[in-house]
Structure formats: C-alpha cells, structure tokens
Amino acid sequence: MGSRIVVNNYGSFDVTFKSGKGSTLTDVNGKKYIDFLAGIAVNCLGHNYKPLVRAISKQASKEIHVCNYFLSDTGDAYAHELLNATGFDGVYFGNSGAEANEAAIKLARKYGQMNGGSSRKTVVTLENSFHGRTLATIKATGQDKFHPECFEPYPEGFKTIPANDWDALKDAFDSSTAALMVECVQGEGGVNLLDARWVQAAADAARRAGAIVIADEVQTGMGRTGSLLASEQLQFNPEVVTLAKGIAGGVPMGAMLFRGKAGDVFQAGDHQSTFGGNPLACAAARVVLKTLKSPDFLAKVTEKGEYMRDTIKSWKIPFVQDVRGLGLMTGVQVEKDPVAIEKACLEQGLLFSTAGSNVLRLVPPLNISKKELNRGLEILKHVLETC
Questions:
Q1: Distance (Å, whole) CA 361 – CA 79
Q2: How far apart are alpha carbons 382 and 387 in whole angstroms?
C-alpha cells in the first residue's frame, strides 16, 4: 500500500494505481480495473488520451504558468472558444469546483449589494445539494452531514429549500435574496434529477425577487449529461455557471461563466487566483472542448448512458430500487450496503463510488468503449447477483 504520510481524509482503499489506458486502470501489482469512476467525473477522456497527452507535453515545453497580471495566448484562445461554445459573455478561471463556486457566491453577494443594498445577500440552495469543501461552499451545501460542529462558525447568508417542491417556492425568495444556486443533477446527494418545470419556475421566482440564478455544473458540465451544459436541457438560462472536474481532462481547473445581469459585477481586485487559467490547464481544456464538439460525440454520451441504465434495469435485481441519471451520470439506488457492493466490485476489478443514501454512482469516461462498458456492467451484475 502507498504511504500514509498523505492524510487519509478520503477513506481510501488499499489500492495503488500506476497507469491507465482508455477506461482501464492498472495497479502496482498488474491487476486491471474498469473505471466507472473517472476520478469522480474528472477523467472525462479516460487515461492516456493521446491528443490530451500531446497538448500537455507541447504546452509544457512552451510555458506552464504566466501570472494573471498578463495574458497567455493559450488561455486567451481557450476563453474565446469556451464562451463561443456556451453563449456566455465572460469567464473567471480558478483551479477547482469549490473555487468556482466561491467565486459565484462572491459575485452574487456583490450583485446583491449593487441591486438592493447590504440586506440582499442570501444565497438560496437546495436540499441534498453539494457545492464544495470550503467553509462557504460547505454551508451552501444542503446536507447536514457536511456541517459538523467542529468547523463552526460557518458563514451566514445561506438558505436551503427542498428540490422539486412547488409549495417551497411560495416564500423562498424575497428582497434579501441575492441568488438561487442549483446543481442540475445532484451528484454527491445521490444522482438526484431535478424537474425541468420546477427549476424554470424557481429561476423565474428568484429573478422576480431581484436575484440572479447560478447553475453549479461542476460535475454535470462539459458533456457529462449528454449536452455541453446540463442547464441547456433544463432550460432555465442561468446568469452564472460554474465548471470544474472534467473541464481539463484531469488537469486541475475550474471556471465561472457569467452573462446578462451578472456581466459587469466583478471588477479588478474583487476575486483572484494565482494559478487559475494557467496555460497548461488551458491547453488541456482546449482538447476537451474540441473533443466534445466533434460530430456525434455528445449524442454517443447520451446513447451510452441510456444503454447503461437500461441494461441495469433489465437484470431485475430485487434490492435495486431505482436506476436514474442523465448522460453518463448514473445512480443505482440499492437496499443493501452500498459500500459493501463497492468493495466487492473493487475486488472484481470495477471502480465506482457511492453517493447520497445507498446509491452507487457510475460516472465513467465520456469516451468509454463499448467493450469496457460491457465488461464493467458484467462485473456489476455478477456482484449484485451474488452479494
């Protein structure tokens, strides 16, 4: 096993990987694993994707980091490509999803002050949401288990409402509301889907109260759900979108996109990042975006996701209560211990994680081959039928 000098905040398993190719990883003992985890939806193009490797290597030979007091040609090119692809007006680059969400919260607070004074500062989020591990994004997260007493005091100015609850919209927003912040699919909460009509109504209600709307697409963005942004499918037109995880294919990166009422909020000095948008990350992100825009790529993501869910449903496992998801983001609700299933699959050579309450979360690379997909499903079926 690898060193425990690195703090085990993750409950890590006794497996150490040394290499990967496609959607298959190999550990230090030579054992191979089908990857239905993708670094928690980060390795969107799998492992050792040649165009990505070439772009990173080429950029590393030119420049890796340029202080954000200046521009890099790679970063400038990617910013234009990303905005053209998404229809937003501007972008802030950071290094992670938590950073992107912190930026969005700060933008919302400043927007509220500019459009209602110091009393307009509340960010409304949804129950079972997850927005990050910093103090502010933990507090924004709508799950009590992420609010332990040991981390108090938490920042104020957050309110949580139940998702898909029409009655909750009656008094959810008022003159103190700066923003509504929603995950398009609640990943950590259990791969929970949002009703499109409800999200649209919630966004409309928030805007009538004078607030902006933020889509947390840290996990759902960049093709994960079969469209470039999941908010495109829900059609609620957020003023702000946050991105990370798969945005650069495994290189740490985050982004906050903004438009409309959110367009002129941030000014010089409001929010900064030393490493954000560095040329190396942007070179990788350009490859991801180009790949996602290639003909039929996103359609195949949708097709493979539906195939995965239909296949699991066809097994008719008695203790599988639900199979849900969007694109290559699938949740399997089980009545048995999900961690025991996760460990059994790991022993058989399949990687995935658990989420929410008794949910197996399956988020393989977007370009997973049919052979690897079927092999992973074979292992999952075997474990579910024998556990």
A1: 31
A2: 8
Helix (H, G, I), strand (E, B) or coil at 222: coil
Q: How many CB atoms lie within 10 A of CB 170?
A: 9
Buried b / exposed e over 224-244, threshold 16 CB at 10 Å, is bbbbbbbbbbbebebbbbbbb
Q: Report pTM.
A: 0.96
- Percentage of residues of the chain with pLDDT beyond 70: 99
Residue 378: alpha-carbon gap to chain centroid:
27
The per-residue pLDDT for range 177-234, each reduced to its tens digit, is 999 999 999 999 999 999 999 999 999 999 999 999 999 999 999 999 999 999 999 9
HSE (CB half, 13 Å, CA atoms) of 270? 16
- Omega before 153 cis (within 30°)? yes
Q: DSSP secondary-structure letter at 247?
A: G
Would you state the pLDDT for residue 1?
Answer: 47
What residues form DSSP beta bridges with 94?
A: 254
Owner of token pair 């985890």: 37
Q: What is the pLDDT of residues 302-339, one digit of tens each?
A: 999 999 999 999 999 999 999 999 999 999 999 999 99
* Residues 70 and 387: beta-carbon distance below 8 Å: no
Question: Is residue 123 left, alpha or beta, with left meaning phi > 0 and alpha meaning psi from -120 to 50?
Answer: beta
Q: How high is the mean pLDDT of the chain? A: 96
Contact 329, 355 (CB under 8 A): no
Q: Which DSSP string corresponds to 300-369?
A: HHHHHHHHHHHHHHHT--TTEEEEEESSS-EEEEESS-HHHHHHHHHHHTEE-EEETTTEEEE---TT--
Query: What is the band of 3 on the pLDDT scale with cuts at 50, 70, 90?
Result: low
